[in-house]
Amino acid sequence: MRRAPLPADALDATDRAILNALQDGFPLTPRPFRDAAAALGIDESDLIARIQNLREEGAITRFGPFFDAEAMGGAFCLCAMAVPADRFDEVVTLVNAHPEVAHNYERAHRLNMWFVLATDSLKGIETTARAIEGETGLKVLRFPKLREFFIGFRVQA
Amino acid sequence: MSLDAIDRRIIAATQGGLPLAPAPYAEVARWLGLDEAEVIARLSAMQASGVIRRIALAPNHYALGVTANGMSVWDIDDDRAEALGERVGALDFVSHCYLRPRALPDWPYNLFAMIHGHDRAAVEAKRQEIAALLGDACRASDVLYSTRILKKTGLRLREG
């Protein structure tokens, strides 16, 4: 994924209108591009070509359905560890070797390693967390989500 | 909602994104040997039940200059945490918002909110906005900035 900002002139006003409008939703109709394009005052083919182009430029990370992985039957848990600086690389290797570790970030804090475990069942979370504790000799703090709040996140293009 | 094998095939076919064709759902139906109407009906049922959160375009916020983010964490009165979490999640600069258990004595915080901004100063300003919203329900807070991505793999559902 592109992490650098695009040049200021990479997007025109129509591109920005598309990015702003389609964040909120995309029609579930037989001709959704035509329907979405009409609301933006452009042609169906222009909308398709622009989305293609935005994707190639790296202005879009995803276009389509967003699935709730938990509703599909998976289990997830945010975990954190306080890893001594002189063991950091060794512990990264041990933790990342588990395929259940979906992502892992170093953060500036005493708890300096934060990762998400993704497994088929809750039991898998415990098994993996205990395995990591056994391998590293370090405590794995578990932060399962108790409640997820509806998100209003929007990026102004 | 219980998903059947056809739902799972539709999920597997679309989790990488929709095809950029005038009739994308018909295209997905063609891949799977289904009717367009059935694909639309099943996606619609999954959306109604929450398995699909939304069908939409996600801008790459890094490409749009929103490159700084911080994991803000808050120790909130348990009695008020649900109501305040709703309000924090609804802010347009918060991309994830969860209640999680504390891990005392290592970790006193129960509300996690990921804040995004153009730079770290913007993230700090937004963090102050959240602090003002939480008021005296908040006993302590912190913000953790990521310094390195150590691993990143997509979460993908296995088919079947």
Which descriptors would you attach to this protein?
heterodimer; A: 157 residues; alpha+beta; Alpha-Beta Plaits; 2 domains; four-stranded antiparallel sheet; elongated; B: 160 residues; Arc Repressor Mutant, subunit A; 5 helices; 5 strands; 38% helix; WH-like_DNA-bd_sf (chain A); AsnC_trans_reg2 (chain A); EC 4.1.1.111 (chain A); NirdL-like_HTH (chain A); lyase (chain A)
Task: Reconstruct the topology from this structure.
The complex is a heterodimer of chains A (157) and B (160).
Chain A: H1 13-22, H2 32-40, H3 44-57, E1 60-67, E2 75-81, H4 88-96, E3 101-107, E4 113-119, H5 122-136, E5 141-143, E6 147-148
Antiparallel strand pairs in A: 2-4, 2-5, 3-4
Helix pairs in contact in A: 2-3
Chain B: H1 5-14, H2 24-32, H3 36-49, E1 52-59, E2 68-76, H4 78-89, E3 94-99, E4 111-117, H5 120-134, E5 138-152
Antiparallel strand pairs in B: 2-4, 2-5, 3-4
Helix pairs in contact in B: 1-2, 2-3
Pfam family, one (chain B): AsnC_trans_reg2
Catalytic activity (chain B): siroheme + 2 H(+) = 12,18-didecarboxysiroheme + 2 CO2
Family (chain B): Belongs to the Ahb/Nir family.
CATH class of the largest domain in chain B: Alpha Beta
Corresponding CATH architecture of the largest domain in chain B: 2-Layer Sandwich
Shape of chain A: elongated
> Strand share of the residues of chain A?
15-25%
The overall average pLDDT of chain A, rounded, is: 94
H/E series of chain A, N to C? HHHEEHEEHEE
Walk across the major sheet of chain A and give the strand order: 3-4-2-5
Radius of gyration of chain A: 21 Å
Report the count of strand segments of chain A: 6
> How many angstroms does the end-to-end distance of chain A come to?
18 Å
Catalytic activity (chain A): siroheme + 2 H(+) = 12,18-didecarboxysiroheme + 2 CO2
Pfam family, one (chain A): NirdL-like_HTH
InterPro entries (chain A): AsnC_trans_reg2 (IPR040523), HTH-Siroheme_Decarb (IPR050684), NirdL-like_HTH (IPR053953), Tscrpt_reg_AsnC-like (IPR019888), WH-like_DNA-bd_sf (IPR036388), WH_DNA-bd_sf (IPR036390)
Family (chain A): Belongs to the Ahb/Nir family.
